[in-house]
Specification:
Blueprint lengths: L1 E5 L2 E5 L1 H4 L4 E6 L20 H15 L6 E2 L9 E3 L14 E4 L5 E6 L3 E7 L4 E7 L1 H5 L2 H13 L6 E5 L9 E2 L1 H11 L6 E3 L5 E3 L1 H12 L6 E3 L22 E7 L1
Parallel strand pairs: 4-7, 5-6, 10-14
Antiparallel strand pairs: 1-2, 2-3, 3-15, 6-9, 7-15, 8-9, 8-10, 11-13, 12-13
Amino acid sequence: MNRTLIGDLNLWEFESLAKEDSIKHFVTDRTGLHKGTEFTLSYSSTPDRDAVVANRNLLALAMGVRENELYLPSQVHKTKIVEVTRRTKKEDLMETDALISAERNRCIAVMAADCVPILLYDKKNKAIGAVHSGWRGSVARILEKTLHEMQARFGTRGDQLLAAIGPSVSQASYEVGEEVVQAVNSSFGLNNNLMIPQNNNKAKLDLWKANELQLLEFGVASANIEVANLCTIINNDHFFSARKGDAGRFAAGIVLL
């Protein structure tokens, strides 16, 4: 990933997606436009609703869309997927953790602060996806479900897809308890190679690999999967981390031009 200036915002871009002329995309940086401010996109992260409105307007402007063409769901760590069209209303995005679209000028995005944001681009069918996948979403295979939904609606195939796994908590920084260990084993099998055992039945979980596996199983070539390799805890100066006590949320999104 590379940090870049788009409009007046410090944003991050994936190298693979940045090469595509038919899309724009972003991952936001927590630094604001003025010293001492933070660029959060979540209304629940601050009592200053006007600041979030202003931030969302600036982000929409940077992506070349109107504010009402920037879609950010109300996420609940479940597996609801919404196809965004010109008829989609904000209330349609409640309790939603993945968005897909095949319409131009619809910027779809998800928010995160340790969970994994994933961006998808179907080059042949001109369709996009944005997925929020923490440990609950990963074991529920929300990414796999989103891929199959894109296949059903748009004809997406793995060999036509570019995927980008954004900044999130790394395995080195992510110790989970026995409940999560059991859920991972149930979803991915006992020989999943996703965890490093720790004391007291705990483990360090690799969310990046858990989602990469779902992409590979769908037929996405490993060369077409870009992993940011940026840990939100280690790189907390750029990305919000709930585990570090941050209330703010950064976002990752994509738009068809």
